[in-house]
Amino acid sequence: MLLLAAVWPAGCFAAEASKDVELSLPRPLGPGDTAIVEITLGALGRGQEVSVTTASGMPLGTISPFGLRAGADAGTYALPVPKETIKDGRLSVHLSISQPGGSRTPTALEVRGIALKLAPQR
């Protein structure tokens, strides 16, 4: 499977609590293409989940790592993106960490990278 990516720098979450991340496709969606958001996570605390929505609040998915060793990276996860959420080749996403007592914006150590990729269907 061929994957093309537009990668956002990992440090994009360190600044402000409510900042959305804008990702760009490497080329326009073609017939049979599927867009995915690929998120690489560092270490998360026990019970923490990463919620991913569009900037307008449409849920794209929740990443809920389970059974990790303390301090271990949580890995890389892919979430499918509905075509209608991509406007002019761009997608704005918002990530938050759910934890007891509420949610917050992830740090650069928790979200190490995020990319909008195209995965052509077979």
Overview of this protein structure:
By secondary structure, the protein is mainly beta. The protein has a single domain (4-120), classed as Jelly Rolls (Sandwich). 0% of the residues lie in helices and 52% in strands. The chain contains no helices and nine strands. Strands 2, 4, 5, 7 and 8 form a five-stranded antiparallel β-sheet that branches. A four-stranded antiparallel β-sheet has the order 1-9-3-6, with no helix packed on it. Strand 7 and strand 8 (102-104) form a beta hairpin. It starts with a strand and ends with a strand. The model is unreliable at 1-18 (pLDDT under 50).
Task: Sum up the structure in keywords.
single chain; about 120 residues; mainly beta; Jelly Rolls; 5-stranded antiparallel β-sheet; 4-stranded antiparallel β-sheet; 9 strands; about 0% helix
Task: Give a brief description.
By secondary structure, the chain is mostly beta strands.
Task: List the SSEs and their pairings.
Elements: E1 4-8, E2 21-24, E3 33-43, E4 49-54, E5 59-63, E6 73-81, E7 90-99, E8 102-104, E9 111-120
Antiparallel strand pairs: 1-9, 2-7, 3-6, 3-9, 4-5, 4-7, 7-8
